[in-house]
Design a protein that fits this description.
By secondary structure, the protein is mainly alpha-helical. Helix content is 79%, strand content 0%.
């Protein structure tokens, strides 16, 4: 019985070590993941010219610049308006709640417009890069223009400005 318990404990330990090592390797792979891998795969499937090193560098720089332009912190004006809204609700003040609701809606509209404009610039710049490189027509033919647009927009990653693109 003691032998079985020791064997069991040893197996559990080995499994735990394997799991930890697997997670560590998975995290390392994420750090070196090619952000253009999906686009490159689609280009290959469309039999389009491969991205040149210059194109890869330019597209990666566009994505990086877009992400760097996104705010890192919560929008203070929006947070202030939300706090005022909650305070008005807790105070039972309909007029103040309406005013705060208008401030929230206005700030969300401004942030949404900023996000959409930044996303449009990124998308148009990448599409222009693909057009210049001779990939865009083949991609549109193989996947439809709408699908290519989705692929390109997905390169930006998460929403930014606190929401979805």
């Amino acid at each position: 019985m003691k032998y079985q318990m020791k064997t069991f404990a040893m197996m559990v330990g080995l499994l735990a070590m394997s799991a930890v090592m697997g997670l560590a390797q998975g995290q390392g792979n994420n750090a070196t993941r090619d952000p253009l891998a999906g686009l490159k795969r689609a280009i290959t499937q469309a039999s389009a010219p491969v991205l040149t090193a210059t194109q890869e560098t330019a597209i990666t720089a566009l994505i990086t610049a877009y992400r760097d332009a996104l705010p890192d912190e919560a929008d203070t004006a929006l947070e202030t308006a939300r706090d005022a809204y909650e305070a008005a609700l807790l105070a039972g003040n309909q007029t103040a709640a309406n005013t705060a609701a208008d401030a929230i809606a206005a700030r969300q509209a401004v942030l949404s417009a900023m996000r959409l404009k930044a996303s449009a610039k990124l998308t148009l710049d990448i599409l222009a890069n693909l057009q210049t490189g001779g990939q865009l027509t083949a991609l549109n033919t193989k996947f439809t223009a709408e699908r290519v647009l989705q692929m390109v927009r997905s390169l930006a990653g998460g929403g930014g400005f606190g929401g979805r693109d």
